[in-house]
Amino acid sequence: MQIEVHKTVAARPPAVFKTVTDIMNWPRIIGSVTAIELLTRGRVRVGTRVRLTRIMYGHQMTEELEVETFERPRRLRLVGENRGMHYERDHVIDALHVGSRLMLIFRNSAETEPARTTQDFITPFMQTCRSTCATNWSATSSIWPPLTFASPSNDVAQLGLSAAVLSRL
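The structure corresponding to this sequence follows.
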């Protein structure tokens, strides 16, 4: 399963990348994240491991993730495994003529039979993540002002990208 959500902001890619990779501050900017524990020393880089605690559907859950890709200022990818399910969270930053588009791509794949059964059950719930994005990433508006478009006929504006926000994943 794959879910993609994105947000356009007035900030340039290096500023967006700096905020996205400041993992210790995720509880301030990602509404569902309540705590982060760095499990490796030093700066965030490939191989950095974190323990992330978040609230999902009213339940607290903790998971360990590892930075698999760190490409300044374009991409941060974290991966993890939990109960036979492989997770990928890919943060991709694209430069626009003015500002940036930040996209979160969430992928999961079942590695075991029980996980495949669970995936069939949770897929409808995961699809609702898009509708809960606005409240989860609303704090980013104070960090990066949203892009505003002069013409409502602009293709990007018609897609509602300036109003879209990242998933609570």
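The helical segments are 13-20, 26-29, 113-127, 133-136, 140-143, 155-158.
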